[in-house]
Amino acid sequence: MANRSSEQPNVLVFFTDQQRWDTTGVHGNPMGLTPNFDAMARRGTHAARSFTCQPVCGPARSCLQTGLYATTTGCFRNGIPLPWESRTLAHCFGGAGYRTGYIGKWHLYERATIGPVPESHRGGYEYWLASNVLEFTSGAYHTVLYDNNGRPVELPGYRVDAVTDAAIRYIDTHRDEPFFLFVSYIEPHHQNHLDDYPPPDGYRERYTGGWMPPDLAALGGSSHQHLGGYYGMVKRLDEALGRTLDALKSLGLTDRTVVMHTSDHGCHFKTRNSEYKRSCHESSIRVPTAFQGPGFDGGGEIRDLVSLIDLPPTLLDAAGIPAPEEMQGRSVLPLTVGEGEDWPEEVFVQISEAQVGRAVRTRRWKYGVDAPEKNGGQDAGSDRYVEQYLYDLEADPYELTNLVGLESHQEVALVMRERLIRRMVAAGEEAPGIEPAKGRRNGRRRVTAEEARM
Asked: Helix or strand or coil: residue 128?
């Protein structure tokens, strides 16, 4: 058993799948779904503007495990295995004397593999209780994961509870040694073969017909059919977070455990394309993120824009472990003490499968481009894009009016185009050509150059 150092906090990742930021009370949801997340955000550190860098399950996971953009790992779409030689968080923590464990959905092996993941492709995790594509090996009340020997393990209870029980057992077993535990839920992702969001029994009825975010109210999609079940899943996830935090408290581990809650991407309920994600819109890329524990307690609300790519170096920084030089994000810990003078003004998003797209978001503006001649399931990028979106998030936070091509916003588009190209190059991509959208006249006043750079 390893000797615990007082300077080695445990690190626990509570990772949900397809959870919108505005399911949480701290972001204005009035349904009372997330009291535990809300409390954690208030007593710890709340990354109030947190975004994925790839709104697809597998690619987002490759970014979070490695701290590299999906075009750098090569996992730009689902079904591409994380290269076996990739240096992951598990390698970094394991090399620093931590016990490492992974429980839940992996989604970083071959598309055809829905069962056990070979040891060579488990990202270096020591303890393993996971499924490559959990939505295909389990149902809401039938959870099947695979252990270190590749044997199926059936866990009782609603799936969120089954995974949580396994996580609490791991925490209890490793209470006396520093551990890094990554708990990856499938909820509130839809159950693919049903095209449904199955909550615990009785929860759908509790939340059907409740508050609906303005973008869904305006655009519809499948939200009237699915939002009740989706909210029920979010509620059970928050209850699981509460149970996990209770377990830490009962074991005397709260003050020496860093906990991070985040998600891989959001959900737009078929309002922006023919499915649930894979777009540059807030509903697809904005996620709930909060931290608690050493270095984060009392950190307040971070108003800077934080990307999923920033989370791996943040976790390492919190544990006092140097981040590998190749990581492409940066730790948010300095932001908790007001030391973010050189923090980027925008986040960068790569979009695949539904399209080959790229986007940047500042506090005020959202700008997205598309490569219409490319196949999102085959091509990682393009040397040519066409402007697709421009949103003024100050006036239009739910992105209902696309301003791209308007004469009044040409200056904004030019500034954002330059930002996007700069971020693409910084991420390791070649500088592309971007074709401006066809001009449109409107009655709006022309945006000033200063406003364009906000």
From this structure: strand
With residue 11 as reference, give the H or E element that holds it.
strand 10-16
At which residue do the structure tokens 């990354």 appear?
A: 47
Confidence of residue 1 (pLDDT cuts 50, 70, 90): very low
Structure-token pair, residue 1: 């058993």
User: What count of Cα atoms within 13 Å lies in the side-chain half-sphere of residue 2?
Assistant: 18
As a whole number, the mean pLDDT across the chain is 94
Q: Which residue is associated with the tokens 């016990």?
A: 99
Q: Find, among 406, 437, 12, 1, the residue nearest to 248 by Cα.
A: 12
CB-CB contact of 318 with 296 (8 Å):
yes
Nearest-angstrom CA–CA distance, 316 and 318: 5
Tokens representing 319? Answer: 């544990």
pLDDT tens digits for 176-228?
A: 999 999 999 999 999 988 889 999 999 999 999 999 999 999 999 999 999 99
pTM, whole model, 2 decimals?
A: 0.95
Backbone angles phi, psi at 265, to 5 degrees: -175, 180
How far apart (Å, rounded) are the C-alpha atoms in residues 10 and 179? 5
